[in-house]
Amino acid sequence: MLKPWIYLLMASGLEAAWTFSLRKLDLGALKNAIVENPLLSSAVGVQFGYLLLYLGLGGSNIYFLSLSMKTIPMTIAIATWTSVSLILIKMCDIFILKNPTNLSEFFFLTLIITGIVGLKFSAPA
């Protein structure tokens, strides 16, 4: 029964990507682009593309989470999904966005990972 856990990891990765897509999505810029430019202009296309990316990542995230929750108990699935998403977001912050971090953050991330592994091995079937 590894497939539901793979779905859960995919949902977590999509959740992290969806979170970062919020940085690009600007509904005000989309509205301004539509008002100031022809509907088929590149300015509207770029902003509309960010909106589609946001919606697609969010929908895919929920789809894979729902697939995993058909087998994995809901409380364990949600706790794992949230935790793995948080860890992926923090790792992207550190390694891609180069945000500063400290040793205590790594310690607490390790505690989260320990909790996820504990949930995985204590989950029924």
From TrEMBL:
It comes from the Bacteria. It is a multi-pass membrane protein. The chain crosses the membrane at residues 40-64, 76-97, 103-123. It holds the Pfam family Multi_Drug_Res. It is found in: Cell membrane. Belongs to the drug/metabolite transporter (DMT) superfamily. Small multidrug resistance (SMR) (TC 2.A.7.1) family. This is SMR family transporter. It comes from Aquirufa novilacunae.
